[in-house]
Amino acid sequence: MIKLNAQQLRTTKKDSEEFKRLRKNPIYIVLDNILDTYNIGSIFRLADAVAAEEVIITGQAEVPPNTRIKKASINTTEWVKWHYESTAKEAIIKIKNQISNIKVIAIEQDKKSVSYTEMKWEFPVAVVVGNETYGVSREVLKMCDAIVELPMFGVNISLNVMVSLGIVLYKIVEKC
Questions:
Q1: pLDDT in tens, 110-139
Q2: What is the CATH superfamily name and number for domain 21-175?
Q3: Which of 29, 142, 151, 167 has the fewest CB atoms within 10 Å, i.e. is most exposed?
Q4: Percent of the chain residues topping a pLDDT of 70
Q5: Where in this chain does the record put each tRNA/rRNA methyltransferase SpoU type domain (predicted)?
Q6: Cis-peptide, bond into residue 64, ω within 30° of zero
Q7: Average pLDDT, the chain
C-alpha cells in the first residue's frame, strides 16, 4: 500500500498558473445544517475531486478553520471556494438570484423523490444535502426543483451524507 501525505496528494500549487487554469464544474454544494465536522471535511475533499465551484455551509455547522474539518479535508478548504449562510433557505435564494437556469436538487428520501439514476442532470446545478439525523429541512425541500434518492437494498435505510453526495456528484459529472 502506498501512503501519501497531504503534500504528495496535490500536484498543483495554490497560487500557480496551473491552479488558476483549472476548470471548475458549475456545481454548488449546499450543506443544510451538517453538524459532523468529519462529514464537512470529507465533503470539501469530494468537492475538490469533482471540481465543484463552491461549498455553502449553513446552520449550526462548524466552518474552516477547524482542526477536524482540516484533517478530514486534507486541507482542501484552502483550494475549494466556500462561504457560510445562516440558513440553507437563504443560500438557495441567493444561488437562484445569482445564477440563471440553475436547478436545485436535494438528496433526500421523500415521497416526491426519484432515483438519482432517473434524473436528467444538467449544469449549472446546486445539490443540497441535509443534517445527519433530520435530513434536508422541509422548508428547503419545498424550494428544490427536484428530490433524488439512492435505492437501498440491504437492512439499513440510508447512507452517510458524504457517501450519498459522492455517488450523486459523480453521476452528475458523468452525465454533464
A1: 999 999 999 999 999 999 999 999 999 999
A2: SPOUT methyltransferase, trefoil knot domain (3.40.1280.10)
A3: 151
A4: 88
A5: 27-170
A6: no
A7: 92
DSSP string, 78-108: GTS-EEEES-HHHHHHHHHHHSTT-EEEEE-
Rounded CA separation 115/105 (Å): 12
Q: With a cut of 80, say whether residue 38 has pLDDT above it.
A: yes
| Strand pairing report for 103-107 and 146-149 | parallel
DSSP H or E stretch at residue 55: strand 52-58
In the structure grid, which three cell numbers stand for residue 169, read together? 456528484
| pTM as predicted | 0.91
C-alpha cell read off for 16: 500557480
